[in-house]
Amino acid sequence: MDTGLLAEIKGHYPGKTIALRADIDALPIKEETDLEFKSKNIGVMHACGHDLHFSSLLGAAYVLNGIKDQLHGTVRLLFQPAEEAGHGGDQVLEKHVLDGVQAIVGFHNNPKLPVGKIALQQGPLMAGCYHIKVVIHGQGSHGARPEEGSDVIVTQAAIITQLQTIVSRNNDPFHAVVVSITKVTAGTTWNVLPDTATLVGTVRTFNDKDTQLVKQRFYELVENIAKAYGQTVEIEWVTGAFPINNDPLITSVVKAGLKDVSEPTLTMTGEDFATFETKIPGTFAFIGSNGNKKAADVHDAKYVGLDETISPAIDYFISSTQSLLSYFDKES
Q1: Comparing C-alpha atoms, which of 88, 100, 94 is closest to residue 48?
Q2: Which residues take part in binding Mn(2+) (predicted)?
Q3: What is the pLDDT of residues 148-173, one digit of tens each?
Q4: To pair with 43 at 20 to 30 A between CA atoms, which of 120, 130, 156, 332?
Q5: First vs last Cα of the chain: how many Å apart?
Q6: Model pTM above 0.90
Q7: Domain 128-240: which topology?
Q8: Domain 5-126+243-331: which CATH number of 3.40.630.10, 3.40.50.11750, 3.20.20.70, 3.40.630.30
Q9: What is the pLDDT of residues 61-75, one digit of tens each?
Q10: In whole angstroms, how far apart are CA 8 and each of 2, 105, 308?
């Protein structure tokens, strides 16, 4: 890993191997806080609190290394790059640095929760994130003579409208799905109908069945609408992050060692910790980092994750480690 880091703490006693993960990357945002430790690089900011995450893992590493003579097993400490880009998890797995790991643990700070409050549950937590793009190809013409071309903007509008029927008419109403078109482009001037139009957006789902349904209907609608207007399309569907789906056993073991755990509110945002959960049983929690109702959310230039979050986050990592290694030792 060019910008990531993996460290390992070997316990005094033999046992299984677990991993603790924190992401380390920042965002291309100009920071608008008055913090003493605000970004020194204009246009780059830890607006998602990853500095809080890796500080917590560093603290946990210090404590765990100090008690390694008590540990039954090995702890790998993963400082992961490129979470925001959506491919950091893949890069880690390609390096095989997590081979042999029996369980993986992570968390994300949540400024909407009181500082230190842990929210954790088995099963779904965060949605899968998929990038979609459609390029429509038709015949341009003068704006006064649309009959001489094939208007790609009309097709673009029809596709945007009909894609929402996937949620309202094809999807199970008890399953959360989002289809959002976030950017549309077409044309260069006021009196010319262009020959291409583009739309991009995102799809969010919580399980593979819903993902496949949305993907199938997405392709069917786009291709058939374009065909109806006598045009062709290029379609892209790219996985940004799989859904977070916490392993029931690992989550129950971790949860049993924690105090005052609340049920989380599911979120349609994504996290590439899910990449690890496709290969390794894992659990992922939210830990409160502010709690003020007016607190800026993550990815905001005014976001502040309070320092007081670090101590309970360290405790979360340490407790998870002790609970899991103890469980695996008893089961072996």
Answers
A1: 88
A2: 48, 50, 84, 108, 299
A3: 999 999 999 999 999 999 999 999 99
A4: 130
A5: 32
A6: yes
A7: Alpha-Beta Plaits (3.30.70)
A8: 3.40.630.10
A9: 999 999 999 999 999
A10: 18, 15, 26
